[in-house]
Every structure is written in C-alpha cells, then in structure tokens.
Design the sequence.
C-alpha cells in the first residue's frame, strides 16, 4: 500500500455512468477520499458505501469528495449506486490498474484489499488505512479525514 506523504498515482477510469474521470481533475477542485472496495452488493462493501452516503453532508462540508474504486463494470456500479442512493463517484477498475498503482491488490492477485486514502489537493497522500474486515475502522478514518479537512479550513 502506498505510504502517507507519497504522491498519489493519477488514475483515469470510467464512472458509474461510463464517463472517464481523472483523479488529477478532481484534485484540482479539492481533496479527495479515494476508497477501494472488493465488490458491489456484498454485505461489507454495502455497509461501507452506505456509511459514506450517510456521512456525505459532513464530508462535503469539510471540502472532501468521495471516490470509490472496485473491479466491477460501470453498469454494476450504476445499479449499486441506484439501489443505495449513493451520490458519489464509483470508478470501474476492471483491469485493476488503480488497484495495482495503489498497491491494494488482494493476496496472490485475487480480489482487492479494503483501503482508503485521504489525498490533498496537491496530490499528497495525507492519511491512509487498510482494514479488510474491520469496516468500522474505515468509518473512523472517514470521520477523522472530515475533521482534519474542516480544521484546516478554520
């Protein structure tokens, strides 16, 4: 996994609507939480996505944008977003380009590790977490990221 203080690799992938989204374009508008998750519609990934949905107001108020990445295609992401009223970007990384760039590939190349990165507008990774099964640790990470960004605005 890429370490805190490193430059975030730039990625360009299709979102849930098939539009190509480039991380550097998003960062030009402000900091990003980039979170990797194994799969749409699984219990843990659904819990994590819905937690982010429920925190969306606080995250946006702190200046953060949320971007999810997993290997499913755009159509799967669209169904997932619609079913759970997700208003943030979900990127389709079918070839696992971003997964490999951020070094969050699963053991022996199978699956994807559950990992999240707080990326500053200049592309520096400010904080990160990797906890495959402890989803509550990711919730804490998201809250901490929002608080950190909010305090930097004051």
Sequence:
């Amino acid at each position: 996994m890429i370490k805190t203080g490193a430059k975030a690799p730039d990625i360009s992938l299709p979102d849930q609507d098939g539009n190509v989204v480039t991380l550097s374009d998003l960062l030009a508008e402000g900091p990003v939480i980039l979170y990797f998750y194994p799969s749409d519609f699984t219990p843990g990934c659904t819990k994590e996505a819905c937690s982010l949905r429920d925190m969306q107001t606080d995250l946006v108020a702190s200046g953060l944008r949320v971007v999810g990445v997993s290997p499913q295609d755009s159509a799967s992401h669209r169904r997932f977003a619609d079913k759970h009223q997700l208003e943030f970007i979900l990127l389709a990384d079918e070839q696992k380009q971003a997964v490999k760039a951020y070094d969050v590939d699963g053991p022996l190349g199978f699956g994807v590790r559950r990992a999240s990165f707080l990326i500053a507008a200049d592309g520096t990774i400010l904080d990160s977490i990797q906890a495959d099964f402890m989803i509550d640790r990711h919730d804490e990470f998201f809250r901490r990221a929002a608080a950190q960004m909010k305090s930097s605005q004051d």
About this structure: The domain at 12-132 is CATH 3.40.30.10 (Glutaredoxin). The mean pLDDT is 90.
